[in-house]
Amino acid sequence: MATTIKDIAKALGISHSTVSRVLTGSKSVNEKTKEAVLNAVKELNYIPNMSARSLKIDKAYNIGVFFSTISNGTSPFVFQTVINNVYKNIDKKYNVIVKGIDMYEENTINPKNYDGILVVSQKIDDDDFIKEILEKEIPTVVINRKVDHDVINVYTDESVGVYKGVEELIKNGHKDIAIIEGAMNFDSTKMRRDGYLKAFNNYNIKLNKNLVLNGNFTVKSGYEKANELIEMNEQFSAIFAFNDEMATGAIKAITEHGLKVPEDISILGFDGNEIGRFITPSITTIKRPIGEIARIATDLLLRLLNNEQDITTKKIYIESELELGNSIKDLN
After folding, report:
1. Helix, strand or coil, per DSSP, at residue 19
2. What pLDDT is stored for residue 51 in this prediction?
3. Pick from 76, 77, 156, 234: most CB atoms within 10 A?
4. Cα–Cα distance for residue pair 80/82, rounded to 1 Å
5. pLDDT over 70 for what percent of the chain?
6. Which domain holds residue 20?
7. What is the pLDDT of residue 314?
8. Whole-number pLDDT of residue 60
């Protein structure tokens, strides 16, 4: 049986994508790796499949942007911000095709149809999809959550950002804090939960589980869950909503009950959504730089397509920051 690129990669303990880049003359692979690959080519008697190589030259001029889901939990803010930044920064010769991973059928991704793929991964269930496109040697960048695959990965640690935000509530004297969480199957929900639990633990604040409700990242769910909280026979001075859309819905519910933000109930959001700057009061939020993440990822994907960036480049971490509004009352 003829030696393949994967045989060379396995022998050297490197990715088949790296071997492929050496054989196509990419300058992004270091000299030591390049020399090892070329030596292995001789030793294993590798003969390039010229017909397959000629097919690779054909470009589809399509870039795929795959979200975990488009209709079931992805907030409009995240969706619009990612797409806007991809369009702003992508080479205009490429078409951008937007799809949901939850709608794709296994083995339907064809390298002839996509020159590169940007995965906006929101849950661990995406790993099979990521594995499939990497096996098909489609240049790929994954954003939003940290993944273990041998792939360029641009992300932020949402638990760290949430810790900062909840700490701001605590430092302003809030101890009875209600929580409106996001979609249960999203990794971001788990990370944000880890963040507030760590803050509660470090400041010796007891979690009242009755004050923890599940939303789904929509304005409507924030409104409905805030109504439930207000109608409970439980005491709380603040609500932390897992995104700004739910925080906005919560403010509407609070107002409809004849209460005021932040005089009666303080609000903390997440995302840095522009909507939070244009309502009264403006929302204090943890700003996740999803626009910057999408911009960096698009640039890296283009560099991959132009053989300027080696696919073995690993993790790029972007920090979240606390953005102060007027929605938190100082109880001290």
Report:
1. helix
2. 46
3. 156
4. 6
5. 92
6. 5-56
7. 78
8. 82
